[in-house]
């Protein structure tokens, strides 16, 4: 059966992202309907992003300045991790490339040699984006580039994408989805059942119903792979406050005794939250802890969100694809949620079953999704596991827990040889892995001997040249707040 009518079950960021992409790229040959209810709130806390979002927006022809004004967005150069490796420590995982490496050996090998010879500065001094973040600066021009992402208002982003999609012909249907009707012969979804009694028929369904996963789990029963033994946090409290300070160009992630706190600066407000493990911290105590560690007047009441880290065993089953929280959940530590929405809908469009659902295509989609989520999972576990903190039961558990073999291999390889790598199609680059591993306190015992072929004076000039270039570029930048005011300020 040819696929002509796509039904998106649920709105929010995931649903309207799917609608925007499909209508922009395939709207001339598909009918696209999104079903959502005004009575159902979205989670709406995925407000920090990563650089691939810019590529996705370019594919859709989204104007950056308009998008940033509409979503009260600011720029993001990375994440500041505080108290993670140990109490009082801090480092920034930035979006920049650190130093300059060689074909045989990445930059950190030369830096390690320089530290051994007492001729290298701190590792972060060789990264442009990281230094700009530390100094609260931002800017770009035709003469210079900078790798960045955004902080944005998720609610406003969903509305922006809705308008974008409806202009391209997407039909929005108001209604509460109560379930799905399956074909007795194939098990495929034939229609959505609405509370009103109406049926919404389609050829391909995209489940954006959030944690409820009404189609993938309630109707198709694909199962769930639980990762909470590696990522034990299962709760979050989110609250918004009025902005009282200039916006910094980075997200703050501040570790506490039983989890961590986020701060995301937008133009008009700050997004705050506390991620924690309910085995070690009760909800009311978490609420008290969060409110004690935020600034500015409250805009809304703190809201508790419960979740279970892991993934659906299938991201695509029969004629239904899960997108967003219905496909699984990886906590927002590295701001990957919206990215996974985007890669999911992009992968669907690349493999789109125009002539009917084929199991080979479904298997390919699921295989790529599994690899992607497991690689991101390992990177997030790294932050919890590689730590010197033993000051609370939570951190002692994280430090001693058994981690996936894939992560154990990476950590052992880096510690014993200094070798770091980016797997094929992996999201996080070598720079990300090295910044976080060393930031958390894992230092290699050895380095590639190519670095030892340089004399001390050659190595010194090499390192000093990189640092001078970074310092010179950062010096020319305006403050982040000044650039936002000039580029995309929201007047109201």
Model description:
- By secondary structure, the chain is an alpha+beta fold.
- Among the domains are: 5-47 and 153-228 and 309-357, FAD/NAD(P)-binding domain; 235-306, no CATH class.
- The chain has 15 helices and 21 strands.
- Strands 5-4-14-15-16-13-17 form a seven-stranded mixed beta sheet. A six-stranded mixed beta sheet has the order 7-2-1-11-20-19.
- Helix 1 runs parallel beside helix 6 and helix 1 runs parallel beside helix 9.
- The longest helix has 27 residues, at 359-385.
CATH superfamily of the domain at 5-47 and 153-228 and 309-357: FAD/NAD(P)-binding domain
Largest sheet: 7 strands, mixed
Beta-strand percent range: 15-25%
Strand order of the largest sheet: 5-4-14-15-16-13-17
Structural class given helices, strands, pairing? alpha+beta
Q: Tally the helices: what do you get? A: 15
- The poorly predicted ranges are none
* Mean pLDDT rating: 96
**Name of the top-level CATH class of the domain at 5-47 and 153-228 and 309-357:** Alpha Beta
**What is the end-to-end distance?**
50 Å
Question: Which quaternary structure do these chains form?
Answer: single chain
Portion of residues within helices: 25-40%
Tell me the CATH topology of the domain at 5-47 and 153-228 and 309-357.
Answer: FAD/NAD(P)-binding domain
What's the Cα radius of gyration? 23 Å
Count of DSSP strands: 21
CATH architecture of the domain at 5-47 and 153-228 and 309-357: 3-Layer(bba) Sandwich
Q: What's the overall geometry?
A: globular
